[in-house]
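Hey, can you fold this one?
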Amino acid sequence: MDMALSVIVIATSLLLVLLILLHRGKGGGLSNLFGGGVSSSLGGSSIAEKNLDRLTIALASLWFVCIVLLGLRLK
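Sure. Predicted structure:
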């Protein structure tokens, strides 16, 4: 059980890094330093961005639950 939780935590951690890097910068910070400051004329967030947000939140929730379970099991 501990090994399975560890594998899930590692996999979700890597996927979270990838998903967070896919998000569009909101201005300021390092995103503007590398050319992320170019804004498009699109008004709101698209369906793809909303789905990316939902997927990121769901994956972060799974990661958090696995971290808590792993902590409880190892304690």
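The mean pLDDT is 82. Let me know if you want another pass with a different chain boundary.
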